[in-house]
Amino acid sequence: MAPEVRSLLTVIDTAYNRRSWHGTNLRGSVRGATARQAAWRPSPTRHNIWELVVHAAYWKYAVQRRLTGARRGSFPLEGSNWFARGPAADERAWRADVALLDRMHRSLREAVAGLSARDLNRKPAGGSVSVFALLSGIAAHDLYHAGQIQLLKRLQR
């Protein structure tokens, strides 16, 4: 594996579930959260933790799809970007959506691991940014939403 690709995988994993200097990553932000906590929203028009988790899963899928050229519409849930979750606090459904996030992360990692250093500079078909920008962006996306989740947890106290 090219050193550049290995470095990007480290950044992606650190933002998702590996120990980091910056604090809680995305997976750490939901560790131990209950369905009730995940379904809580600060106001009727704001997203909850659960919706942020499924949104992050969707965008991991979207980046993976752009890297591999997979067909649109192959995400396991119907729809795109935001998926309504709550107010029911169903523990099984919550755990299933966290597992979906984990699966989408693994799929993304597999796609990234298959890249060459030259691939990082190309623009995926129909895209306007490089593969490198997509991958650094998905890591930033994870951390952005990890911060939101941490704030939502604090607001519940």
Sum this structure up briefly.
This protein has 157 residues and is mainly α.
Number of helices: 6
Q: What is the CATH top level name?
A: Mainly Alpha
- Overall tally of structural domains: 1
Q: Spans of 5+ residues with little confidence (pLDDT < 50)? A: none
Q: By CATH's scheme, which homologous superfamily applies? A: dinb family like domain
Query: Which outline best applies?
Result: globular
Helix content: 55-70%
Query: What's the average pLDDT?
Result: 95
CATH fold topology: Four Helix Bundle (Hemerythrin (Met), subunit A)
User: What is the multimeric organization of the chains shown?
Assistant: single chain
CATH architecture descriptor text: Up-down Bundle
Query: Which class best fits the helix and strand makeup?
Result: mainly alpha
Could you give the distance between the termini? 45 Å
Gyration radius (Cα, Å) is: 16 Å
What is the count of β-strands?
A: 0
Secondary-structure element order, as H and E? HHHHHH
